[in-house]
């Protein structure tokens, strides 16, 4: 395995009671890769995301990111290492404004102290202005600059997904994990999303790993694809090789199993 | 050897008080099991039960057991109404709103009772003559025996009800998964009402038993035993019926042993110390299984 | 510029209120008894706003606030009576010990959620009360009497203003936003790098600090502390909770208004105390059923909002 890898996952296993949701999965991501994680429902894709971000306990194996060991670290520590994510079922702070949703995510970059905050020192004002500017920038990037003051929960589904991506960007991540970013979007929105994701990788130099059921999107967008079935990684490769992989076809079409 | 005898005596007293806690804790646990609500007003239903019993004996001139039945029915009605009026509209609200409502209901019962029954305590009519039975170095009173007898009888009935009847099955189904139970044709609303009725009736009996035991009732008598019974339910594992019994008995004994060891004012702190320790080290209770949170 | 102007306007208004009270008292229009009630209003404002930080903004559920209040009340009284410490340092010591206790209790207790946390905090409050009941140095069950009357309206008023400003600033800073995030969705907050335990404990300790300060003001206002449930136990905690809920979780101005209204009204209805205790719970339940976000519904009353209201415009001020 090349040592240039940014994210390294070695023999990762996640077990819930008697069920092995993820079984000795190993893969790695190089900087600025655009990769996809696919597989039938229940294959363990979201569980891998949860394990990577510390939201579910890892029962075996190792995760390292830029040579930092992340296995079983709390989620907030992992976020501070430069991994940001979105959620399959959108977890925005619904009762807060879109702008506040984004400003919260700048948390790890805030430098002023509690006392500065409590007594509103000049430093506080300066940094808050900077945070707001950054948030507006990120909103601009996803094309929602005009929705800053709206309550996040009041936006339509597709826009909520984009707010969630913008919020993840506020962390200044190196690795962005997107859990079904196109779910519930119409073809036009999906096309915009595709361009946005490409742009993020190219302009912000992000490494992106996404879970997606829209095969057209995955095949169009990703350079590298990991296929998961019943907790096992059954294939890795570029879109062309994945499409012709016998095991992948079987997993999706439900062919006979060994 | 005298402290050992004293401790043994307190063990008997503790088991008596513990049986009462267990009766109240059963109501907490059943309601929590079924709608995940800490029914803060449950202790006050126990208080109302004591007053209902008081009036059934003094005004209706009923003997003890029929008075108990009257009080159980009346308390059951109060419990059902409470759920209907205060909790049902909030079934899909955040749990904090429901908890605040429950606190409100508790206060309402207390202040109404104070207005209607008077703020000062009343001696409870002694429907049976006091007797103490010597058992070697320690003794047991006939009131304690009554508490044990009634408590055990009610627990056996409840156990049979929950384990072997169709109603019990439906109740367990609702506790497990409300939506699925609904799809199976179970009238969820009615099961919830019945659970409140059952829990309230048990609490009412506990109220009468305590009224007789301490020979006094007052509008605030429900607060502390209510909280302690809740702790007992948590100790045994909330939502688990045998857990409530185990927790109640342990609480009663622990409290009385602390009284033997030292100050009686520390007695009320025991419950809360137990609560905090249990929540930290065994949050699912002694009989509980480890649960998992879904992400 | 407009910001600075409205800030100055607010300061002027606050000074004006103080001057008006002094003037009316000097002319004998406000009796000492009335000024006492105003001081009590200020103390309750501190209690409710500080509980709002914990319950309203951070989404925890504490019903043990009276425990922190009691620590501040008793420690400060002990310091001024037994050690002859001046009042201001005694207030600060009371606040600090309450805050440290908040820290000590918060670290383990805040692993619990929702209703479990509620019961644990209630239990903690009662434990504090029982400890005080058994401590002879502060009077034990007899109560603590002979506390000097150091609390003036001016001091209570100033402390209330400091509390409101500090907590408002906290909520509007990155620290407060982290607390809001924890309230809204702990998992999302964590995945954004927010250490949820840290912020829960921080809010808890800060809230406890101000509750302790309120306690110090209270013991030197009443000059006597009794270790009863209604003065330092769960009845007191629930009183504070009622004010908070009626004013609206997550609204500072709502807390202030509710604290004033619910302190003043009972004074006028002394003869109807029994009915008040029936009315309050009904009000509490009705608010939960029909308007669960409280009378202010998480909004703030602002000068700008008020002027717009006068102009007939619609007020739209969320968390500002």
Task: Describe what this molecule looks like in 3D.
The complex is a heterotrimer of chains A (258), B (295) and C (320). With 258 residues, chain A is an alpha/beta fold. Chain A has a domain at 93-172. Chain A is built from ten helices and ten strands. The radius of gyration of chain A is 19 Å and the shape is globular. In chain B, helix 9 packs across helix 10 and helix 9 packs parallel to helix 11 (267-281). The longest helix of chain B has 34 residues, at 2-35. Chain B has one domain: ABC transporter involved in vitamin B12 uptake, BtuC. Chain B has helices spanning 2-35, 42-58, 64-87, 95-117, 142-164, 166-176, 178-183, 188-214, 223-236, 241-261, 267-281; strands spanning 132-135, 138-141. Chain C is an all-alpha fold. Chain C has helices spanning 2-26, 32-57, 65-82, 87-109, 114-133, 153-171, 174-184, 186-191, 196-222, 229-232, 234-247, 252-268, 273-290, 303-310; strands at residues 144-145, 224-225. The chains are: A alpha/beta (258), B mainly alpha (295), C mainly alpha (320). Chains in contact: A-B, A-C, B-C. At the A-C interface, helix 2, helix 3, helix 4 and helix 5 of A face helix 6, helix 7 and helix 8 of C.
- Count the DSSP helices of chain B: 11
Portion in beta strands of chain A: 15-25%
Give the overall shape of chain B.
globular
CATH architecture of chain B: Orthogonal Bundle
Arrangement of strands in the largest sheet of chain B:
1-2
The first-level CATH class name of chain B:
Mainly Alpha
Major sheet summary line of chain A:
6 strands, mixed
Average the pLDDT over all residues of chain A and give the rounded result: 91
Query: Unreliable segments of chain A (pLDDT under 50, ≥5 consecutive)?
Result: none
């Amino acid at each position: 395995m090349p040592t240039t890898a940014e994210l390294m996952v070695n023999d990762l296993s996640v077990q819930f009671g008697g069920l092995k949701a993820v079984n000795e999965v190993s893969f790695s991501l190089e900087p600025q890769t655009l990769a996809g994680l696919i597989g039938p429902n229940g294959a363990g894709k979201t569980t891998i995301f949860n394990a990577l971000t510390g939201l579910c306990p890892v029962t075996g194996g190792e995760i390292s990111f830029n040579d930092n060991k992340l296995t079983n670290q709390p989620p907030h520590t992992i976020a501070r290492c430069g991994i940001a994510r979105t959620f399959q079922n959108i977890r925005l702070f619904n009762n807060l404004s879109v702008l506040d949703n984004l400003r919260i995510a700048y948390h790890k970059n805030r430098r002023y102290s509690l006392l500065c905050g409590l007594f509103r020192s000049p430093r506080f004002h300066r940094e808050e202005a900077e945070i707001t500017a950054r948030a507006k920038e990120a909103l601009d990037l996803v094309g929602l600059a005009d929705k800053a003051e709206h309550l996040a929960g009041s936006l339509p589904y597709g826009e909520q997904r984009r707010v969630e991506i913008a919020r993840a960007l506020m962390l200044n991540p190196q690795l962005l994990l997107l859990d079904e970013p196109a779910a519930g979007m119409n073809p036009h929105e999906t096309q915009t999303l595709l361009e946005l994701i490409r742009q993020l990788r190219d302009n912000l130099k992000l490494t992106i790993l996404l879970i997606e059921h829209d095969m057209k999107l995955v095949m169009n967008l990703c350079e590298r694809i990991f296929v998961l079935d019943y907790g096992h990684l059954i294939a890795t490769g570029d879109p062309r090789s994945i499409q012709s992989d016998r095991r992948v076809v079987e997993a999706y079409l439900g062919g006979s199993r060994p | 050897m005298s402290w050992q005898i004293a401790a043994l005596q307190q063990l008997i007293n503790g088991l008596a008080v513990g049986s009462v806690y267990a009766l109240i804790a059963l109501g907490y646990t059943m309601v929590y099991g079924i709608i995940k609500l800490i029914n803060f007003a449950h202790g006050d239903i126990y208080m109302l039960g004591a007053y209902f019993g008081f009036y059934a004996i003094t005004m209706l001139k009923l003997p003890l057991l029929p008075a108990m039945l009257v009080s159980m029915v009346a308390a059951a009605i109060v419990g059902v109404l409470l759920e209907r009026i205060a909790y049902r509209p909030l079934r899909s609200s955040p749990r904090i709103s429901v908890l605040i409502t429950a606190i409100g209901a508790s206060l309402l019962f207390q202040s109404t009772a104070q207005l209607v029954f008077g703020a000062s305590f009343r001696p409870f009519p002694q429907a049976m003559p006091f007797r103490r039975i010597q058992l070697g170095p320690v003794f047991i009173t006939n009131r304690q025996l009554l508490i044990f007898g009634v408590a055990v009888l009610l627990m056996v009935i409840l156990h049979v009800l929950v384990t072997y009847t169709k109603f019990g099955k439906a109740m367990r189904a609702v506790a497990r998964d409300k939506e699925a139970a609904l799809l199976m044709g179970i009238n969820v609303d009615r099961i919830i009402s019945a659970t409140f009725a059952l829990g309230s009736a048990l609490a009412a009996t506990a109220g009468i038993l305590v009224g007789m035991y301490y020979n006094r009732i007052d509008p605030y008598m429900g607060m502390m035993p209510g909280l302690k019974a809740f702790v007992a339910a948590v100790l045994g594992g909330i939502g688990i019926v045998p857990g409530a019994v185990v927790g109640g008995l342990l609480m009663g004994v622990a409290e009385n042993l602390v009284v033997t060891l030292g100050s009686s004012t520390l007695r009320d702190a025991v419950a809360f110390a137990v609560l905090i320790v249990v929540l930290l080290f065994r949050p699912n209770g002694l009989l509980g299984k480890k649960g998992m949170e879904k992400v | 510029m407009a910001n600075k102007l409205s800030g100055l306007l607010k300061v002027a208004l606050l000074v004006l209120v103080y001057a008006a009270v002094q003037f009316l008292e000097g002319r004998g229009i406000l009796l000492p008894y009335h000024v006492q009630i105003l001081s009590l209003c200020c103390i309750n404002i501190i209690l409710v706003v500080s509980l709002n930080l914990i319950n309203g903004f951070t989404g925890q559920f504490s019903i043990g606030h009276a425990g922190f209040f009691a620590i501040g009340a008793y420690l400060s009284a002990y310091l001024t009576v037994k050690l002859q410490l001046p009042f201001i340092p005694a207030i600060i010591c009371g606040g600090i010990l309450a805050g440290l206790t908040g820290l000590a209790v918060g670290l383990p207790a805040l692993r619990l959620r929702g209703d479990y946390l509620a019961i644990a905090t209630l239990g903690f409050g009662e434990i504090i009360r029982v400890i005080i009941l058994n401590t002879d140095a502060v009077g034990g069950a007899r109560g603590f009497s002979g506390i000097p009357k150091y609390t003036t309206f001016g001091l209570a008023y100033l402390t209330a203003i400091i509390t409101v400003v500090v907590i408002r600033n906290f909520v509007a800073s990155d620290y407060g936003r982290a607390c809001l995030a924890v309230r809204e969705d702990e998992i999302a907050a964590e995945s954004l790098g927010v250490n949820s335990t840290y912020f829960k404990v921080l809010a808890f300790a800060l809230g406890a600090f101000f509750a302790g300060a309120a306690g110090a003001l209270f013991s030197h206002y009443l000059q006597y502390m009794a270790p009863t449930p209604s003065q330092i136990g769960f009845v007191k905690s629930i009183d504070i909770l009622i004010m908070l809920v009626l004013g609206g979780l997550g609204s500072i101005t709502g807390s202030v208004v509710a604290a004033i209204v619910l302190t003043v009204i009972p004074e006028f209805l002394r003869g109807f105390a029994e009915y008040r205790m029936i009315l309050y719970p009904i009000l509490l339940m009705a608010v939960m059923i029909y308007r669960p976000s409280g009378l202010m519904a998480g909004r703030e009353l602002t000068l700008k909002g008020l002027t717009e209201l006068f102009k007939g415009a619609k007020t739209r001020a969320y968390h500002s």
